[in-house]
Amino acid sequence: MKEENKKLIDALQKRFVAHPWHGIPAGEKRPDIVNAFIEIIPSDAIKYEVDKESGYILIDRPQKFSNHMPCMYGFVPQTYCEKSVAAYCAEKTGKKDIVGDCDPLDICVLSEREVNRGNIIAECIPVGGFRMIDGGEADDKIIAVLKGDQAYGNVQSIDELPQMVVDRAKHFFLTYKDIEGNSKKVEITDVYGPEEAKEVIKRSYNDYMDSFGDADEELSDALAAFLKEKV
């Protein structure tokens, strides 16, 4: 990237808010420490999610039943669950015809402190995950702990978490789509540890780069083409 283009990109980033999916980095120390963009918190009775085109938070639907998200929930920026993630799920489960859900990688972030708003970035440490398949689509849920958290911050593996906490999260994901008329089968085939969670993160990042490329490089190329036309 040319120095003058980098300066212009830096100036744009200071002036404008980054797109939560494309503009926020997954984390310099990924997959050991990642950024999570939080869409939903436990007190939300509405399912929110990021609009992929605009980057704004939109209302997906009200939660029909009384069970609420048991932890902070969102996605890892600059990730995408497609061919590589689907292949890993198929390899681990032995199931055929698995495809990616073509969404950013979902992540649950545990903290001892109550967080009272979404639309925030949380730096967190992956400790495991659920290998979830939703209607034949790989839909992994990474389980992470908030970096520096007083209760969970030193946890290194999902095995160190209270079983009740893990079971509560599993129950939510197995039931929250259990609404009238929903015919898609949702299953969690297994609970995995930090190494597999990091592999899923790596694969989802690679899937993103294969599908969308580096956002800064794309902006730099677009700026270079624009300036060339003006000369």
How would you sum up this structure in a few lines?
This protein is α+β, with helices and mostly antiparallel strands. The protein contains five helices and ten strands.
How is this structure best described in words?
The protein is an alpha+beta fold and 231 residues long. It contains five helices and ten strands, in the order H-E-E-E-E-H-E-E-E-E-E-H-E-H-H. The protein has helices at 3-15, 83-93, 163-175, 194-212, 215-230; strands at residues 34-40, 46-50, 57-62, 72-76, 99-100, 105-110, 120-134, 137-138, 141-146, 186-192. Strand 2 and strand 3 (57-62) form a beta hairpin.
Count of domain modules: 1
The best one-word shape is globular
At CATH level 3, the topology is: Inorganic Pyrophosphatase
Run of helices and strands: HEEEEHEEEEEHEHH
> What portion of residues is helical?
25-40%
- Full CATH superfamily name: Inorganic pyrophosphatase
Strand content: 25-35%
Biggest beta sheet summary: 5 strands, mixed, barrel
Evaluate the radius of gyration. 19 Å
Can you list the strand order of the major beta sheet? 1-4-6-9-7
Report mean pLDDT, rounded to a whole number: 90
Named at the architecture level, the CATH assignment is Alpha-Beta Complex
The beta-strand count equals 10
Termini distance? Answer: 19 Å
Structural class: alpha+beta
Low-confidence spans: pLDDT under 50, at least 5 residues? none
CATH class (first level) name: Alpha Beta
- DSSP summary: helix tally: 5
